[in-house]
Structure formats: C-alpha cells, structure tokens
Amino acid sequence: MDRVTAAEVFVCIAEKGSMTAAAEALEMSRAMVTRYLAQMEEWAGARLLHRTTRRLSLTEAGRETLARCRRMLELVGEMAVASTSEAGTPRGLLRVACSQSLAQDVLAATVAEFLRRYPLVAIDLQIGARSVNLVEERIDLAIRITNDLDPNVIARPLGRCDSVICASPAYLAAHGRPHRVPDLATHNCLTYSYFGKSLWEFEVTGERLAVPVSGNLSANESHVLLSAAVEGAGIAMQPIYAARKLIAQGRLVALLPEAVPQPLGVYGVYGSRRQMPAALRLLLDLLAERFADPDYWPVRPPDPRPDTARARNRTA
C-alpha cells in the first residue's frame, strides 16, 4: 500500500467533509478513496471516522492520526529532488494487469518497445481474466476490454475491440455453415464466461440483433476457446486480433460477414490522475498510439483467400 497516498486521501476527506468531495479534489474514483481510507484505518489500527448518512466526523483516534498525517505530508513535501533532469526521467516499476490473450498477442511487442525507449523502467505483467483490485494488489494499470466498466473507476479509453464469428473447416464440414445470425442458435457455440455467455449481439444492416447461444464448452480465457475452435469443437466469437492469423492461414473460417458482433471498449484503468508517474503516462500514450494503428490493432478479419483476391485484382 502507498501510505503517503493513503495519508493524503485521509487528510483530504477530513478537510472536505465527504469522500465524494475528496474524490473530486484528488481526481480519484470514490471507490479508490474508500479503499485508501480502509487501508489507512487498518494501518492506524482504529476507526478514524464516524459515518452517518449526512456527514463524516473524526473519532478521537482520527484526530490524532490526522495530525500525524499532516506532519508526515509536510516532511514529504520538503524532500529535495536530486536534479530536475533526473526527476523527469521515467524510471521505476510498473505493475500492469491484463488478459492472457491480450498480453500474448498484442501487448508483448508494445511493452518490449516501451522498455527499449525507457531502459530505467521495469514492467511486471500480471496475467489473468478476472478484474483486479488496484490498491490491494498494487497494480498501476489494468487494461480491460469491456462494455460494462465500473463508473467509479478512472479510465482512459484506448480503442475499440472488434470480434469475428469463426469455426474450423472440419466443424463446418461436419455440421454445416450458418447463413444467418439466428442459425447460430442451432449450433454448438463456445462461450466466454465473462461476456455474452448466453446471448450474442450483432448489428445487421443497421439493426440490432441478438441470438441466444449455447454449447458444451465455456471458459474464462478466450485463448482456450480459440484453440478449441481450431480443433473443431464449435463456433466461437473471438477478438479479431486473436483470430486473424488463423483465418489467414485457413485454420479458421470467418462466418456471417454481414453481421457485425457488438464491439467492446478497450480501457486503461488506474488509481489517480494526480501525481501520475511519468512512466505510467508515457505507457498510456504509447498504448493509445498503438490501439489507433490498424496494422497493430485490426478492426476486421483478413481476407481468408489473399491469393485469390490478388488474382481478381490482376484480372480486373
């Protein structure tokens, strides 16, 4: 836990009289302010505030802790910086949380480029499908792909994640090819536990269309479903960034080209805009740049028959 930040949050709550006002003043989410206060009370070993529906007031322990926190923050403010140029050099450790598929297929190359540019920075990638607690797990940045972002978090939009419906040639040979979105309801669909497990949503010629899907395999990691689709287990909805190479190789077939799966937002979630480390700001800038590059972040599946497409262009 960052005890200096926790002390700053506690002092701000005491001065503003509410956690909402403190969150606005510190440019933090209210949820983050609540977590820092809880950590501060755990550190102090006592309840620091009386909470009612109308106002907050300090306990006796809270008054004593407030005085100590103010003294500590004064000392922090008096610490001299060795040199201005050195202070502006990005350095230190960044802990970044993201999913396995995003880290493996996309982020690894960007992280490598970032570390080449800023050799005094180290990055610790925390891989997993679940949503992490930034404070408790000491995460500086969580990259989330979702349309259900918690409104209490601070997040920078980075891009849009488009998906494709796909299946292996073997599955299609055995079970036939869906020609319309409603046909998916009769197929074995491989579903992702955290998004659209039983309902896939599309836009077809400007209209919204949803279809209930089911199947005998679901997972909380999209790479598992992608591998299963390649093996002929069923039809999958996959991020284009993960499926594009397999489609180009002919190991998967893109289906229903007229139906556009519901896109998801890509966000960088972090704890506070105030006193953001230079390394974190620069990493967010680079990620936003990469997610805007269609060569790095594709928005549509590749032509599954590139040689045929080139032949058509030559004869046109």
Automatic annotation (TrEMBL):
Domain HTH lysR-type: 1-59
Pfam families cross-referenced by the UniProt entry: HTH_1, LysR_substrate
Family classification: Belongs to the LysR transcriptional regulatory family.
Transcription regulation in keyword set: yes
Name used for this protein in its record: LysR family transcriptional regulator
Keyword line: DNA-binding, Transcription, Transcription regulation
Organism this protein belongs to: Variovorax ureilyticus
Alphabetized PANTHER family for the sequence: HTH-TYPE TRANSCRIPTIONAL REGULATOR, TRANSCRIPTIONAL REGULATORY PROTEIN
Alphabetized InterPro entries for the sequence: LysR-type_TF_proteobact-type, LysR_HTH_N, LysR_subst-bd, WH-like_DNA-bd_sf, WH_DNA-bd_sf
Keyword Transcription regulation: yes
Region (Disordered): 297-316
